[in-house]
Design goal:
This protein is α+β, with helices and mostly antiparallel strands. Among the domains are: about 25 residues; about 80 residues, no CATH class; about 150 residues, no CATH class. It is built from ten helices and 22 strands. Strands 11-19-18-12 form a four-stranded antiparallel β-sheet. Strand 20 and strand 21 form a beta hairpin. Helix 2 packs across helix 3. InterPro entries: Glycopeptide_resist_protein (IPR052913), Vancomycin_resist_VanW (IPR007391), YoaR-like_PG-bd (IPR022029). This is VanW-like protein. It comes from Romboutsia ilealis.
Length: about 400
């Protein structure tokens, strides 16, 4: 037991002796570091040990100089000054922290820190880069306003006489704002300001001049007649206009209901006879089925892919059986797909009690074909199958497809 106490007493005396030596050493250094930062202290990569505060600031400012950000694009250059975005590396705070690192309220802690620094254990302080995100976004918005240009799609307008007027497409420009901000963030974070080449995205038009100019002929057309001096006739005019002058790109689908919208009074439709539950009743939009039927037959004759078509409950008076396209907003639609390599254009001409639907397209997509129907009568209904027959160069049949199977009630 006496041996154990002797060891502990020796350790205590040794510790006190070491503290006494360190304290004496520190007090001897007091004058040498008076008003100066203690040795082996760094701010980022700059050693500021043994420097006065103003000396340390000059050294750090020289290494981490706040510089303008120059952004270049072709012959244009924009400058974002540090004060424009409140950019700061908080160098003053970092130097203050370096100075008080060995001058804390705890003398024991100060001794430990000085001891570590004396033993070449460096202490590094990071600069805290700050900026105003809102002000940066405002500066970048000026650049966007200078550069961004909306893409212009090519347009086509075909008159009733068939005259074609086109406007060319133009590429759009758009600053890649995400990429630009990321570059600026990295420079600020790394405190390494450099010139930036403005990242700009070129936006290609989805409808090009070449595409609209490929439309050079009528692929198919169809006409039906009606009494224009009636509510039904008025509805045909409205529906004919809303489904006309529509460009359909390759692979896209035309929806009759989408083109017309709801057949309501607010959309210009009047009350006229419609078939509901197999009976003729007054309803908004009566007559719109004649427009869908006319377009349907033009699409049939053009060789377009019919995706959805429905027949009426009873045969229609304005078209032969198997060739009608009944529609009801929100229930049944008429749809076809542009299965060609070029765009097509729907043109409806409504005049003098007749509606003619023409589908324009590229002559390369035109096919020889005709429509045939097969009619079977049963007790209380008529079944009509509608076929499309495609012909070769010498008018020989190449292929035949069943387009629809229609069932009509017999009145």
């Amino acid at each position: 037991m006496d041996k154990y106490r002797l060891v502990n007493k020796f350790k205590l005396i040794s510790s006190l002796f070491i503290i006494l030596i360190l304290t004496t050493g520190m007090s001897n250094q007091k004058d040498s570091f008076n008003g100066k930062i203690f040795k082996n202290i760094y701010i980022e990569q700059v050693h500021i040990g043994k420097m006065k505060l103003d000396e340390a600031k000059k050294a750090v400012d020289k290494k981490y100089l706040l510089k303008p950000i120059y952004i270049k694009y072709e012959d244009k250059t924009w400058c974002i000054n540090p004060q424009d975005i409140d950019l700061s590396y908080n160098i003053d705070d970092a130097i203050k922290n370096a100075y008080i690192y060995t001058r804390s309220d705890s003398k024991i802690e100060n001794i430990k820190r000085k001891c570590n620094l004396d033993l070449n254990k460096a202490y590094s302080i990071k600069l805290n880069a700050t900026y105003n995100e809102s002000k940066l976004s405002e500066q970048l918005s000026y650049i966007q306003n200078d550069i961004n240009k909306k893409v212009q799609q090519a347009t086509l307008e075909i008159s009733d006489s068939g005259q074609m007027i086109t406007t060319p497409s133009k590429e759009g420009l758009e600053v890649d704002i995400a990429s630009l901000k990321e570059q600026i963030y990295d420079m600020i974070k790394n405190k390494d300001i450099k010139n930036i080449n403005l990242p700009v995205k070129v936006i290609q038009p989805t409808i090009t001049t070449q595409q609209v100019k490929s439309i050079n002929t009528v692929l198919g057309q169809f006409s039906t007649s009606f009494n224009e001096h009636s509510a039904r006739g008025s509805n045909i005019y409205v529906a004919g206009k809303s489904t006309s002058d529509i460009l359909i790109m390759p692979g896209d689908t035309f929806s009759y209901n989408k083109a017309t919208g709801a057949r309501t009074w607010s959309n210009g439709y009047k009350t006229a006879k419609v078939i509901v539950g197999g009976k003729y009743v007054n309803g908004e939009g009566g007559g719109v089925c004649q427009v869908s039927t006319t377009i349907y037959n033009a699409a049939l004759m053009s060789g377009l892919e019919i995706q959805e078509v429905h027949n009426h409950t009873y045969p229609s008076h304005y078209v032969s059986k198997g060739r009608d396209a009944a529609v009801s907003y929100g229930y049944t639609d008429f749809k076809f797909k542009n299965n060609f390599a070029h765009p097509i254009y729907i043109k409806n001409i409504v005049s003098n009690g007749a509606i003619t639907s023409k589908i324009y397209g590229c002559s390369q997509d035109r096919e020889k074909l005709y429509i045939r129907t097969q009619e079977i009568r049963e007790k209380d209904k008529i079944i009509v199958k509608t076929y499309r027959v495609f012909l070769g160069e010498e008018n020989n049949k190449i292929r035949e497809e069943l387009v629809s199977e229609n069932k009509y009630k017999i009145k």
